[in-house]
Write a structure and sequence with these properties.
By secondary structure, the chain is an alpha+beta fold. Helix content is 30%, strand content 30%. The protein folds into 3 domains: 58 residues, no CATH class; 78 residues, Immunoglobulin-like (Sandwich); 98 residues, no CATH class. The strands form 4 sheets. A 5-stranded antiparallel β-sheet has the order 13-12-11-10-14. The protein starts with a strand and ends in a 7-residue tail after the last helix.
Length: 263
């Protein structure tokens, strides 16, 4: 059921009605069918337009037999390998950096005399890269066109440590010292580090605050001896010793969340 306008009062009525429910005008049979004819013509026109669009797309994007023959001959007589271009030959990353296939592919661009631009994702990759180990690694990529011609290029990746061996030892001791202090305070969750320094003899010096049994914060100075594995309380004099050097606590926190702590 659909709606149509009454020829007499111009109000909408169902196309199945024989008389207008508003004015009583008798609706002729052909008037009730006008809307149906319009719908059919509209549907037919839409289908016809869709067919024309499909045929036009196929005509524009489907190669002709002559084009297919030409492309086949080009491939058969293509003896030029793809050209691999790279931003640079040497790259430097830090230990534990994430270097995935996409990172490597982004270094390259590949063009071919017949195939045009070749997506880097189609490259074949050969490497022994291990970002957890410091060293020099070589990555070889191979590109191949539709004719089977291929070319290769090798780049070098240097993996360097983000920290020196001395820093790794120092920061590791600082983290161990922090957790050692947590074991001697009444409320480990309340522990706050207000300052951290180190001695050339390997001791890590902390200024910290923690809540005691009466919910009052107590500030104290503590020394962690990395060689002896001991925590000494009330170490204010040592903390202010002239040879004590400050450490950035944010650096220690970042180090504690890195894989270096497990080395």
């Amino acid at each position: 059921m659909a709606l149509m306008n009454c020829p007499e009062c111009h109000k909408q009525v169902s196309d199945t009605c024989k008389r207008c429910i508003h004015c009583g005008y008798k609706l002729h049979k052909f008037q009730r069918k006008d809307l149906l004819k319009y719908k059919k013509s509209l549907l037919f026109g839409s289908c016809f337009l869709l067919v024309i669009i499909v045929l036009l797309v196929r005509y524009l994007f489907t190669p002709t037999p002559e084009q297919e023959v030409k492309e086949t001959l080009l491939i058969q007589h293509d003896e030029e390998p793809p050209i691999i271009s790279c931003k640079q030959n040497d790259f430097t990353f830090y230990q534990y950096d994430i270097i995935d296939r996409k990172t490597i592919f982004d270094f390259f661009s590949i063009t071919d005399n017949v195939d045009g631009t070749i997506a880097p994702s189609s490259l074949e990759l050969s490497t022994d890269l291990d970002t957890s180990k410091v060293g020099t690694y070589h990555i070889t990529v191979t590109a191949k066109d539709h004719a089977g011609n291929q070319s290769a290029q090798t780049i070098t990746i240097h993996i360097k440590s983000k920290y020196t061996p001395q820093e790794i030892k120092l920061y590791t001791n600082a983290v161990i010292g922090y957790y050692s202090i947590r074991e001697i305070v009444k409320s480990p969750a309340s522990l706050k580090i207000y300052g951290i320094k180190y001695h050339t003899n390997g001791e890590i010096l902390f200024k910290y605050g923690a809540t005691n049994s009466f919910n009052a914060e107590i500030t104290n100075y503590t020394v962690y001896n990395a060689d002896l594995g001991l925590v000494t309380r009330n170490a204010e004099k040592q903390y202010y010793a002239s040879d004590a050097k400050p450490l950035d606590w944010n650096t220690i926190v970042a180090f504690s969340n890195s894989p270096y702590l497990n080395n």
